[in-house]
Sequence to fold (418 residues):
Amino acid sequence: MKKLNPELTELYNFLTEFINMHGFAPSYREIQSALGYKSISMVKPKLLELEQLDKIKINNYKSRAIEIKTLKNDTPKHADCITFENINECSAIKDFQYHSVSISKTLLPSINSHSNCFVLKMIGSSMTDAGINDGDFVLIKSQNTAKTNDIVYALIEDEFTTIKKYIKKGEKITLLPENKSMKAIFPKKIEILGVIVGCLKLSFNNGKN
Amino acid sequence: MKKLNPELTELYNFLTEFINMHGFAPSYREIQSALGYKSISMVKPKLLELEQLDKIKINNYKSRAIEIKTLKNDTPKHADCITFENINECSAIKDFQYHSVSISKTLLPSINSHSNCFVLKMIGSSMTDAGINDGDFVLIKSQNTAKTNDIVYALIEDEFTTIKKYIKKGEKITLLPENKSMKAIFPKKIEILGVIVGCLKLSFNNGKN
DNA sequence: CTACTGTATATATATACAGTAG
DNA sequence: CTACTGTATATATATACAGTAG
Fold:
């Protein structure tokens, strides 16, 4: 990122903040007013400077059509990402702050854009042998079926939710913790809420096992 | 997410895709043309339907000023996220596909928006005891200093890059693998390239240790 | 009546350009 | 000359509305 002078930095920041806040770009008049230019004629030359520095793209003769250029042109746009947002409906898994995690679709080709995905904070050590530790953020694809060996997020006996490995042999379902010191569950009633597709670790203190 | 009829779904998808692709909204004429409406007069009524369903926000009399409403109003905008993009400069760590990972700032309050962050794919099992396995995506904050016990990404002897735990006692620097079966490195020359702040796991096959 | 079409028009908006200060 | 100001104007764009099909 080349350095901008303070004036252009202010303009650039205004543009990015406006676009992030509104979802569309400011008009030249709005730019003039926000930056305190005495004339609207100053807007285009300043924008051209930013464009020359490859910070923005001006679409001539189009209204509110300034684009912010990302560092790389091949950066996936939002549409090419899968976003996991948290929900607040889990007994075993707390933490009510808002979280979101977005990753490139290329990282999870199995997920299509119609999938409903969410993130939960893991509580407990029942899955440490699968690399999911207490405090990790678990990325879940919402679905109501699962295959053997999937790691599922499920509602058990209408009572509690849990994250375990799903094993089905004939009609018998086993939920296996990935932790040698813990016991398997043989649920009478199970509702699969989702399948774990990823795990985001932001602390490495619990990682030692 | 309430269900939309196919016609409104098509319109909604066009709007989101256009905005994601261009960074600004389409004009009414562009909408007419894309959706095949015979008259531009059809655009506003259709948009109003979407707005009534709380899918978009129309800004009357403003050009290209349609906003997509997110599920939650408190969803962090792009500005509130930290984005890790991959780079292609690492001997020990391959994989040249483009990847990006964005997470809410609330998840990593220690990182400010001026930090340069990137993502690398982990190769090898030298950090499995810290929960970082072969194939995991390592989130790195670019910086050239580190504290004892940080997990660093560093260039050693001007020859190779590695990910290890950083220990400094007086002037003596030790790079410790988090894997009992591997040996520590005592580098003569070390250049710290970044500190590991997170790890994204998208496969659980290697997680068993 | 509903559900559109087609076009005129008002408004928003970017651009052009003559003028001015230093 | 540069670096602006101020304003007129062309263009982009959303809106209004009379007309039409069924």
About this structure: Confidence is low (pLDDT under 50) at residues 71-79, 87-96 of chain A. Chain A has two domains: 6-68, 78-200. Residues 78-200 of chain A form a domain with the Umud Fragment, subunit A fold (CATH 2.10.109.10). The first strand of chain A starts at residue 56 and ends at 57.
